[in-house]
Q: What sequence folds into this?
């Protein structure tokens, strides 16, 4: 949900080494949800911009829609040494002019717990969205919403076992994605297997799994014929997972590994059938011979 702030609000911006107080225009927007606050501002593309927000709680992540996840710094001095933009890095002594220009892209953020201020150094754009993620159990002091402790964890992925016969063929397995340990939506963007025996419909991806929900992907396993009863093996799989909401920046990426277990049992293979038939014939012949002998003895 987005809210347009009426009137004006004062936010401190840092330009180079100086501070300036800026009245934000009415098109300054803050969006609030259960765990993040979004700020939208207009600035020159690729320029160095600073945003300072009063915040009583430290965020756990900051993202922008142009550079992605913004790194956290342990102190303000280190953050103040970051650079964004084009800088002269070499001087031509003869002509006293710049002979080399270097482009820097070093965004970052730092939360000052003593003064309860959040400093964000970001690369400007027109417009630029800055998302600040807060825990959901406590209020943040930032403008535009409440935040709190958000659980972030990769989903559990468990595949159902395949019970096949020695005749082989195609069997189904369900790959269950259990997003039960996270407050954020998890999206399966790719699925890979160690063997060509396992395949799935690519149209099933990407698969979005809501917080505390479970979704499944159907996988077909082509089991070769002729494997002996009692044989078992596994097919390794891996899933690329992006965790975040549909309106959020990327907060975490994972590779989750799992296995599909294949068990061979049930119908005997052709060789075992031959020995079974031979055993039956031998038993019948032996029984007939015994009966004939008994009749003659009587």
A:
């Amino acid at each position: 949900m987005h809210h347009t702030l009426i009137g004006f609000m004062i936010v401190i911006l840092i330009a180079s080494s100086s501070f300036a107080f800026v009245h934000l225009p009415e098109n300054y927007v803050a969006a609030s949800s259960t765990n993040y606050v979004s700020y939208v501002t207009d600035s020159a593309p690729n320029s160095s911009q600073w945003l300072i927000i009063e915040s009583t709680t430290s965020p756990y992540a900051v993202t922008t829609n142009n550079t992605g996840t913004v790194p956290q710094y342990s102190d303000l001095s280190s953050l103040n040494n970051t650079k964004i933009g084009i800088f002269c890095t070499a001087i031509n002594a003869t002509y006293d002019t710049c002979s080399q220009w270097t482009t820097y892209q070093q965004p970052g953020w730092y939360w000052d717990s003593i003064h309860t201020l959040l400093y964000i150094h970001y690369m400007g754009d027109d417009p630029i969205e800055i998302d600040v993620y807060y825990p959901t159990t406590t209020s943040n002091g930032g403008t535009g919403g409440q935040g709190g402790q958000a659980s972030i964890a990769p989903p559990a992925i468990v595949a159902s076992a395949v019970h096949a016969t020695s005749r082989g063929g195609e069997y189904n397995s369900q790959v269950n994605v259990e997003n039960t340990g996270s407050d954020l939506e998890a999206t399966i963007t790719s699925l890979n297997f160690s063997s060509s025996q396992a395949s799935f419909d690519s149209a099933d991806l990407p698969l979005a799994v809501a917080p505390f929900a479970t979704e499944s992907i159907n996988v077909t396993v082509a089991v070769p014929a002729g494997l002996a009863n009692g044989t078992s093996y596994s097919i390794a799989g891996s899933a690329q997972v992006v965790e975040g909401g549909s309106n959020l920046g990327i907060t975490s990426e994972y590779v989750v590994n799992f296995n599909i277990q294949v068990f061979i049992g049930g119908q005997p293979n052709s060789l075992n059938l031959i020995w079974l038939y031979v055993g039956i014939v031998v038993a019948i012949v032996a029984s007939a011979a015994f009966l004939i002998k008994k009749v003659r003895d009587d």
